Amino acid sequence: MLATDALPAKKQEKPPASLSLAVAGRALPGSGIFGSALGASVPFSTSLSPLSGHGPQIFLRIKVEDTPDIVHFATTIPVSAGMSMQEVLERACRKTTVDHPEAYALLLANDNTRILIPLDRTVASLQGKHELVLIRRTMIDDNVVRGTGKTTVSNASI
Hints:
The protein is α/β, with parallel strands linked by helices.
């Protein structure tokens, strides 16, 4: 007889299933820290920033024009490279207390050229340019370049 045969076998105890479900039930939905009610672990961001899923934070300087070429005031908004220009327009309007974002447009002011920014593009399409103009659509004059075209690539250059 071996010495190991004389020792009683250790009993393997599993935690009660109800305990692990109770913990999962109290966890935040989709929390990778506590697991989910489905038993799978879903990762989530530990950052509370709404921008965290879109890349690093970028600051855009928005000049608000009441009339063409006359800046009423300017503001800076935090965005990310993956954010759509539609979201940028809405965020800029909220920050500047403009009531109807659909009545406004964003322009990219490049040297002596002003370009109408398509709202289906992303901030990455600005290619590092951080100064924009928020203007009423009715005030866009003939000097503004339009028709940069639709594309399936949202990061395509403006």
